[in-house]
Amino acid sequence: MKVQDIVSSIEQMAPLSYQESYDNSGLIVGDSNLKVSGVLICLDVTEAVVEEAIQKGDNLIISHHPILFKGIKSLTGKSYVERTLILAIQHKIAIYASHTNMDAVQGGVSDRICDLIGLKDTRVLVPVQGDLKKLVSFVPEDYAEKVRNAIFQAGAGSIGNYDSCSFNAKGIGTFRGGENANPFVGEKDKLHEESEVRIETIFSGYRTRKVIDALLKSHPYEEVAYDIYPIENENPLVGHGRIGVLEESEDAMIFLNRIKKIFNVGCIRYTNIVNEKISKIAVCGGSGSFLLAQAIKEEADVFITGDFKYHEFFNAEEKLMIADIGHYESEQFTRDIFYELVTKKFPNFAVHISEINSNPINYL
To answer: Coiled coil: which residue ranges (predicted)?
Structure first.
């Protein structure tokens, strides 16, 4: 098993194209062709985590937070980041991070929070825009089903909770093969008319190469006519935060205490209780204050996230309750997502969850 094999399994769920511009997800240290002896999963990479990997015999660390966000001009050990990198390099340990891309995707960080709380009818709070593309191609009638199935298998045709979505219209295609052509139908140097199906479907941009390859391999024509259009629609499956509802409403204080227990929170910082009964809940793993306005717009009873600053709490304006459970606390179960991903794909492989508590914050 190589680093690239394991990385690919993660990126099938959380493509790097979904990370934010400030982020640094991906392979940060190491050779993608390195043969992996074992995997250690963590939230943050520290010297203690690298020491743990050495002790366990793991030479690939998968973390949620990147050890490097910005470039460095020297590597002398003057900071914990540099010391951690030096230690990993010395022991030939690769480090990979999946951060804001894992926040954004279906089944990622915020969805895990929803699962733990017990929310239903969940959806993305702020979907990404400009991610979708439309494929249009023209296929002989007898081959339309084959081509559709091929591009669906490549990831095209998903809209919300539906897959295999396409629009099909019959028409007449015309073409004339040149002297060096080898036409599938018709004859060289003669204008030919063929009954064709115009197939339209959409896909996420990161799947472009895979979808086009599937189209070209399944299409019978020597020269395949197709168009790719950018789509400005929101992608309902990808984006920031989530919102959903409880099966049954709960008393606000009972709900807060339940959250405190689930996430093992030392202290919940919360604003005034606006609604005594909690039903509609917005969540965001990590630092989610930038989503407050949208949570208010969606008329959530409470917004659960971390890292609210003092003055940002005022922005609740008695329209909902902010419940700041802490950055680490809201993302700690990301380790379980990585563990489940890797062990499902590679069931007979050594995968460990770090025993190091990397939360830099203590509560008294």
So the answer is: none
